[in-house]
User: Which sequence fits this backbone?
């Protein structure tokens, strides 16, 4: 476009008459926009021959900024409706009447072009004081302007040129808005013709009804709608709902990849979050207040008061959209900034467990030492000081458990007592019930609906407690066995309870409509029953009991409920050594066991309602764990033979086959699936008394072709101690014995990079994400210290201005993306 002949009436997309801002009496200059590359050309005389390329930026429809030799000059812009007039010879009378200065005005000293009086522009002349513009082409707009605002505030692009006749497209303030198009003789040819609004303050697209604008937005690509929302202030309110609607469809697909239990956690959190809490959580990761307002507005439709919990029946889609948006914000953030919320020093005791509430308002800890109390720490919002609420016990507190809704706490000590402490609607904690057993407490748990609790001890009894509508807890049932009770577990629907006892039985109880727990059946075994658990659909039970033959042999037995409500034995899974784990898949169609006899066994539920052996997983060392992926299609085992094996389920042939073996240099301590089933984290075993520096963590990711590829190899100076995925599997925290905890994130390109590194002057026992991934809790037993960190995201800077400083995220694990990928 450097040649003068290329700027003709057919190649100019738009023309503007400019006058210096605040001086309407000044003589106008002309600004042309080339149709092919959207470049701007300026000439200050009366000839279109003397043009030069400049940088121009529009802040709105009638204000333009141009770089001149004195800096940035501000102009009042008026669109020229008939571009052809710039190329037509003007009558002498009109010329003389509109211009008093017929002398040539040189624009480019190098080009030698001067004014050609054969082509005149009516009413145009160079400004006598400022006739030259800056020759620099590497110019940037003023800080408050964006290049995309040129399109959004001055004109719109159409795919096909219209006729030179001026069409009527709308009205504003009772006057018809006229649109003048460039005259292009070519027909049926796609071009970048420009619609211009002459002498109007309103752009015709903005004058259209909101529904029509929404439909137009619906036909644009996601990228285009996002660009409009970020650059055009007038169209943000239209673009934002379109993006939210598209995000809603994406969030449904995203939500389905999680196991039902994880989905219920998301729903529970969203149910109990007030609108201010939702807003504060979102603002940790984004500065987009409009999107936050839209999400909170949707939340407000289901809430009558900011402190009132919303009904899950009224919000079937809100948890999906909320967690989906937070997940995208965290992925897009190049770094995560940890802000210290609480620093708790445990001088008289050491801490083994610290549980953070969903809303990060409370931290519950147990203690080992002379203190003899469980503690509830009310976290302050803006400083690290905490108010402590004590739950006194006679002996050392062994464990604390929080209910799913975070409103109740179970704590038990070495002196056979269990206490239930609850939070009232006015956020006051008070002891509700004290349960006394005759012997040592073996386990205690809440039901999934947080309405019941069960405690088990060696006194042959299991006690069930329930809460009424007024929030008062009371004992409602006692399950008596002839031997010590080893375990008690509620079904996922909270309607059933199964207990396992050394009297060779497992008993099933059902909650009646009147609140009483009634005995349904007793499952007889040949020896001591160690554990009993329900399947996710509450239709099956797997028990683990000791074999009669063999000192260490154990068997897992699967029971299923018939249509008539009777429970029958379906299959036995025998091992020659102790069973370390026995679990159902999330879809309740498979079961897997892990044993010290070097094997893992998989059983599947067939179409005839029977359980059949499907696969045998062999290792050369003891198998310490075996677990299913959230989508029920994968199994991961960890073994002392330094390997973790991945098995996949072939849905066509309904068989489990080995896909890959992950090898470590030492015994594998744990193998975990991410919540989205896309990643696996394996950790080498490390001894707390003598830490090994060669212990590491490996992350493997599932590619689109169905293969598992190495994603990250994390080796820390102090040796890896523990690791955990966050709530959606996009981030992982790894800590070592030297006191470092680092968070890694998986980008949209599938590559893992370090988001932050938190250093401590003492060794760490564990680092855990909160249930919604907004906070991190680090625990040091030796240092007797607990720290709570709020994780805040940093939005990535625009790529068009990223030639200087780049984001602080360090890609430890993979090479940086190519320049083409970054663009």
Assistant:
């Amino acid at each position: 476009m450097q040649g003068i002949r290329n700027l003709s009436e057919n190649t100019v997309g738009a023309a503007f008459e400019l006058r210096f801002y605040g001086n309407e009496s000044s003589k106008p200059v002309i600004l042309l926009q080339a149709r092919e590359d959207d470049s701007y050309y300026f000439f200050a005389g009366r000839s279109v021959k003397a043009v030069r390329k400049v940088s121009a930026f529009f802040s709105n429809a009638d204000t333009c900024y141009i770089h001149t030799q004195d800096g940035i000059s501000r102009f009042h812009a008026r669109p020229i409706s008939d571009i052809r007039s710039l190329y037509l010879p003007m009558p002498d009378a009109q010329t003389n009447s509109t211009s008093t200065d017929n002398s040539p005005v040189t624009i480019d000293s190098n080009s030698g072009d001067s004014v050609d009086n054969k082509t005149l522009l009516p009413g145009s002349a160079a400004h006598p004081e400022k006739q030259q513009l800056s020759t620099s082409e590497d110019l940037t707009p003023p800080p408050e302007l964006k290049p995309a605002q040129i399109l959004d505030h001055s004109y719109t692009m159409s795919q096909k040129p219209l006729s030179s006749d001026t069409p009527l497209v709308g009205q504003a303030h009772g006057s018809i808005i006229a649109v003048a198009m460039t005259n292009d003789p070519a027909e049926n040819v796609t071009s970048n013709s420009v619609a211009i609004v002459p002498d109007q303050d309103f752009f015709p697209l903005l004058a259209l009804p909101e529904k029509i604008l929404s439909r137009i937005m619906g036909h644009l690509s996601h990228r285009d709608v996002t660009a409009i929302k970020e650059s055009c202030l007038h169209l943000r309110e239209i673009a934002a709902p379109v993006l939210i609607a598209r995000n809603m469809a994406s969030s449904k697909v995203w939500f389905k990849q999680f196991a039902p239990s994880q989905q219920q956690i998301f729903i529970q959190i969203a149910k109990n979050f007030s609108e201010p809490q939702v807003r504060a959580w979102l603002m940790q990761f984004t500065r987009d207040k409009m999107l936050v307002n839209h999400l909170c507005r949707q939340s407000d439709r289901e809430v009558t008061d900011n402190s009132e919990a919303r009904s899950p029946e009224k919000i079937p889609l809100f948890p999906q959209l909320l967690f989906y948006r937070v997940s995208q914000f965290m992925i897009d953030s190049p770094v995560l900034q940890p802000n210290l919320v609480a620093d708790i020093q445990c001088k008289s005791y050491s801490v083994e467990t610290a549980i953070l509430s969903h809303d990060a308002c409370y931290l519950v800890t147990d203690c080992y030492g002379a203190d003899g109390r469980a503690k509830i720490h009310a976290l302050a919002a803006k400083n690290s000081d905490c108010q402590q609420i004590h739950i006194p016990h006679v002996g050392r507190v062994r464990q604390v458990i929080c209910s799913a809704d975070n409103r109740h706490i179970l704590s038990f000590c070495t002196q056979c007592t269990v206490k239930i402490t609850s939070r009232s609607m006015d956020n006051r904690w008070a002891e509700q019930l004290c349960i006394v057993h005759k012997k040592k407490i073996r386990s205690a748990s809440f039901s999934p609906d947080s309405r019941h609790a069960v405690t088990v001890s060696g006194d042959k009894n299991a006690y069930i407690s329930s809460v009424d509508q007024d929030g008062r807890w009371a004992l409602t049932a006692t399950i008596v066995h002839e031997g010590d009770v080893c375990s008690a577990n509620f079904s996922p629907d909270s309607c059933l309870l199964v207990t396992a006892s050394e009297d060779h039985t497992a008993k099933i109880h059902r909650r009646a409509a009147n609140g009483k727990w009634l005995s349904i059946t007793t499952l007889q075994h040949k020896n001591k029953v160690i554990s009993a658990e329900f399947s996710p659909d509450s239709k099956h039970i797997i028990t683990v009991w000791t074999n009669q033959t063999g000192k260490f042999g154990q068997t897992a037995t699967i029971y299923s409920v018939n249509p008539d409500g009777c429970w029958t034995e379906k299959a036995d899974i025998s091992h020659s050594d102790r069973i370390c784990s026995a679990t159902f898949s999330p879809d309740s169609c498979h079961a897997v066991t892990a044993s010290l006899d070097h094997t893992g066994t998989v059983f599947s539920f067939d179409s005839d309602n029977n359980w059949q052996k499907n696969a045998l997983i062999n290792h050369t060392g003891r198998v310490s764990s075996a677990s299913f992926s959230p989508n029920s299609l994968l199994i991961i085992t960890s073994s002392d033979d330094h390997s973790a094996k991945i098995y996949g389920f072939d849905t066509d042939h309904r068989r489990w086959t080995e896909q890959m073996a992950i090898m470590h240099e030492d015994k594998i301590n744990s193998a975990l699936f991410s919540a989205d089933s896309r990643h696996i984290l394996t950790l080498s075993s490390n001894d707390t008394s003598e830490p090994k520096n060669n212990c590491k963590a490996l992350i493997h990711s599932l590619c689109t072709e169905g293969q598992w590829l190495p994603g990250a190899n994390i080796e820390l100076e102090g040796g890896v101690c523990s690791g955990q995925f966050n709530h959606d599997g996009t981030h992982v925290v790894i800590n070592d014995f030297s006191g470092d905890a680092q968070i890694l994130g998986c980008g949209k390109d599938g590559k893992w990079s370090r988001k932050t590194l938190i250093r401590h002057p003492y060794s760490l026992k564990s680092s855990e994400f909160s249930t919604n991934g907004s906070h991190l809790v680090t625990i040091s037993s030796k240092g007797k210290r607990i720290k709570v960190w709020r994780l805040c995201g940093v939005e990535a800077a625009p790529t068009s201005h990223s030639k200087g400083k780049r984001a602080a995220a360090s890609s430890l694990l993979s090479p940086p993306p190519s320049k083409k990928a970054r663009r």
